[in-house]
What we know:
Layout: H1 2-13, H2 17-26, E1 30-37, E2 40-47, E3 50-57, E4 64-72, E5 78-84, E6 88-94, E7 100-106, E8 109-112
Antiparallel strand pairs: 1-2, 2-3, 3-6, 4-5, 4-7, 7-8
Signal peptide: 1-23
Keywords: Signal
Organism: Streptomyces tabacisoli
Amino acid sequence: MLAALLGSGLLVLGGPSVGSAHAAALCSGHKVRTLSFATGRTVVYKNDGYVCAVTYPKRGGTRQYMSVGVQARGNRVVVDAGRYTHHAGPVTVHAGHRCVRVTGKVGARSVSTGWILC
């Protein structure tokens, strides 16, 4: 009986929060922006001078073109692009106290910021 209860308790602990724990593990730090667009969203995190971003599709599970890019002012843009099923990225750059530009794309639709987090 105890083994059955323990087993069911473990199943509950490993339930719905697993997906959110995986998403949170992609970028460290705290979420500072969510950039929503027609086919997805790009989420931006900041941690000790580093900026990290991930692009998620509205409808995951099918392979489609996605990209995410982060550029610290004065540096080159760092991009992850390809045909993915769940997300593009994470992409992390050291920004220090500099502004950054973030882009995200799923299919034909995209989002782009100006200089942010200055």
